Amino acid sequence: QKMVAVNASEMSQAITQTGRVALYGILFDFDKAEIKSESKPQLDEIAALLRTEQSLKLLVAGHTDTVGGAAHNLDLSRRRADAVVAALTQEYRIAAARLIAQGMGSGSPVASNDTEPGRAKNRRVELVKQ
Fold first, then answer.
1. Could you tell me which of 59, 68, 41 has the C-alpha nearest to residue 122?
2. DSSP code string of 8-51
3. Taking CA 35 as the corner, what is the angle to CA 49 and CA 5, rounded to the nearest 5 degrees?
4. Does residue 70 have a pLDDT over 90?
């Protein structure tokens, strides 16, 4: 499933309006926490947002679907959020003090987990203004 990166301006607008933005352009293999190379455009845009808005601090929240147990999904989502923070701090030189990683597991679905399209919507990374 191919997801489109949200650009820095769109992220800024969503964060201003709602305090958060859901991103589907950060991709992982099934049950893995290593960011896939196809995620680079989305990471580039997050870095651009953080460079433009120097005072912005973000919670990076990893979300999963319900495939797998609750404890496993909570750990997986935390490791994925950690991977995003690591990429932003190491590859893009964003100050670590501006980012907090948190795993949400499958506890905050935005769609039904009964179908693959619903599960795909639930697998996301959200940026939440702090």
1. 68
2. HHHHHHHHHHHSEEEE----B-TT--SBPGGGHHHHHHHHHHHH
3. 40
4. yes
Three-state DSSP at 60 gives strand
> Helix, strand or coil for residue 96?
helix
CA–CA dist 67, 75 (Å, integer): 13
According to DSSP H, which parts of 35-107 are helical?
40-52, 70-90
Question: Which helix (DSSP H) or strand (DSSP E) does residue 68 occupy?
Answer: none
The arithmetic mean of pLDDT across residues 71-100, rounded, is 98
Q: Collapsing DSSP states into helix, strand and coil, what is residue 102?
A: strand
pLDDT at 1: 46
pLDDT, average across residues 98-105: 98
